[in-house]
Amino acid sequence: xxxxxxxxxxxxxxxxxxxxxxxxxxxxxxxxxxxxxxxxxxxxxxxxxxxxxxxxxxxxxxxxxxxxxxxxxxxxxxxxxxxxxxxxxxxxxxxxxxxxxxxxxxxxxxxxxxxxxxxxxxxxxxxxxxxxxxxxxxxxxxxxxxxxxxxxxxxxxxxxxxxxxxxxxxxxxxxxxxxx
Length: 180
What we know:
- The protein is α/β, with parallel strands linked by helices.
- It contains 3 helices and 19 strands.
- The strands form 4 sheets. Strands 2-5-8-13-16-18-19 form a 7-stranded mixed beta sheet, with no helix packed on it. A 5-stranded parallel beta sheet has the order 1-4-7-12-15, covered by helices on one side. Strands 3-6-9-14-17 form a 5-stranded parallel beta sheet, with no helix packed on it.
- The relative contact order is 0.10.
């Protein structure tokens, strides 16, 4: 039993080192703020496009960001991206594939996420999407259309729960006033 625990600990340490090295490579390849955090393991950034991530943003375990050549994924500052989130700049029209058109049907588009956003666990963000500032995207939502500033959205139908014109600094200022 002790031997198994030691082996497990050694493998766990090697796994941590492997991901630390991989994250260092991502920092060299993409434009990631120094204060950006990989908040977990097995986070994958890939593609020959650009990935730009702002200050004080983090992304959770098992999430992935794909940016194909000619496309950009831009994530603002102070964003919290939970676990199992998928962000893609390329997708396929499944109806064309079903009809046998394997050459066509690609859809490409940049993805932009504004500042001060919370992206819940399991969210899928399609190509060509813009999410405004100060937004909350609830867990397991498929984002297939643009989201305006100050929105809280949920479900695959993108039902807007609440929309507010407050900005982050104004909200913070009000919170600080109420504490005094």
